[in-house]
Amino acid sequence: MKANLQRKTTATAHLIKILFISCLFFPLSCYMAKGPYESVEILTSSNWVLSEIKDQSVTLHDFKNGKPYLHFSPEGNLTIFTGCDYLRGTFVARGSLIRMRFDTANLCRTYLASDFVNALKMSNTFKTRLEKLVLIRDTSELMYFFPK
């Protein structure tokens, strides 16, 4: 019995050493083993209310029916409130990459709603920091959201 336990402990120790050495020489493999950098669970945890777009703060005065927001469902569905109407679509997020698809045929034609939707279309990555969602195009931060 002690011999079996000792063999299992030794095998586990060897496995940990191999994993550690692999991480030293192949850091990308350790990154992939840990999972995505930004979790989809963060996106789906709440509605995200727009707070800033193009370095301009957004207020209730800017949108008569309420601030725009995003809702990401765990199933990959996307609901967008533009401040004057709703758009429906889908999203895929892997790591910090995000791709959103939605139909704009029924988009209300206000300047701010159009800016909001165009910035969403341009977004290709996201990050969260201090309970803030940031949508990014390459290295340019386009919009900031807070949980609702």
Secondary-structure blueprint:
Blueprint: H1 2-25, H2 27-34, H3 40-43, E1 47-53, E2 56-57, E3 69-72, E4 77-81, E5 86-94, E6 97-102, H4 111-122, E7 125-129, E8 132-137, E9 140-147
Helix pairs in contact: 1-2
Explained architecture:
This protein is α+β, with helices and mostly antiparallel strands. It has 2 domains: 2-34; 40-147, Lipocalin (Beta Barrel), CATH 2.40.128.270. It has 4 helices and 9 strands, in the order H-H-H-E-E-E-E-E-E-H-E-E-E. It has helices at 2-25, 27-34, 40-43, 111-122, and strands at 47-53, 56-57, 69-72, 77-81, 86-94, 97-102, 125-129, 132-137, 140-147. Strands 1, 2, 3, 4, 5, 6, 7, 8 and 9 form a 9-stranded antiparallel beta sheet that branches. Strand 7 (125-129) and strand 8 form a beta hairpin. The longest helix has 24 residues, at 2-25. The termini are far apart. Mean pLDDT is 81; it is low at 26-38.
CATH architecture of the largest domain: Beta Barrel
- Helix share bin: 25-40%
**Class of the largest domain in CATH?**
Mainly Beta
State the separation between the terminal residues, measured CA to CA: 56 Å
CATH-defined topology of the largest domain:
Lipocalin
- Count of distinct strands: 9
* Gyration radius, rounded: 21 Å
Order of helices and strands: HHHEEEEEEHEEE
Overall domain count: 2
